[in-house]
Amino acid sequence: xxxxxxxxxxxxxxxxxxxxxxxxxxxxxxxxxxxxPSGCGKSTLLRMIAGLTPITDGxxxxxxxxxxxxxxxxxxxxxxFQNYALYPFLSVWDNVAFGLKARKxxxxxxxxxxxxxxxMVNLTDFKNRxxxxxxxxxxxxxxxxxxxxxxADICLMDEPLSNLDAQLRIRMRQEIYNLQRKLGxxxxxxxxxxxxxxxxxxxxxxxxxxHVQQIGTPAEIYQHP
Length: 225
Ligand code: ADP
Ligand code: ADP
What we know:
binds adenosine-5'-diphosphate
């Protein structure tokens, strides 16, 4: 599914004007990275795409339909947060199943999706553990499994690796990249890490001072003569 941002503006209030005239086209199956300094509005932009925060002006379209008019289900969208948002009292398996159970899926469909997702992120052997019994990387993979199991076409990731140490970040970067390619996800990935942006992105949007400073391929953005 493609995503289109058209002159998007966001003011939280008169004093807090966060984004202005943000426009971009994200193609189906693309790995699209948003970079910019802390506080520049990256999370806000993701939340507007997800329909979690009202848009002050302009519009967000998913497959050429205005996002506010789409029922949440039709957005086929999932989100991965920086802190993973896992339920501490549920097992890995139940954490991945939780969102699916709220939907009208058959029990066997839920089981298949959860088991496949856990297999994909190599967590099958950990399915009965609680989040506190996992390493940081494993927790991150539970969050990824949840996104995989949702069968969404669009995945929004908000600094998903920023709580991991440097070595693990590199490994998880590769895992996310592989998943995105394998599933053909349209992925919008927020980071303030230029190396992540450079190594993963098809296109990068640089946000700065409320505006889109630049959109281009990693080569266009980072390789100046
Ligand atoms: P980033 O993700 O780039 O760090 P955010 O989108 O989180 O930036 O925040 C952008 C600006 O909007 C910041 O100045 C922040 O304080 C402000 N902000 C974020 N959420 C809210 C909110 N719910 N109410 C008011 N201001 C907010
Ligand atoms: P079985 O095939 O043993 O009858 P089920 O059909 O209930 O089991 O589920 C298929 C597989 O899904 C199980 O082998 C197990 O790996 C997994 N599974 C199902 N529910 C859970 C759960 N609540 N916690 C962990 N794993 C589960």
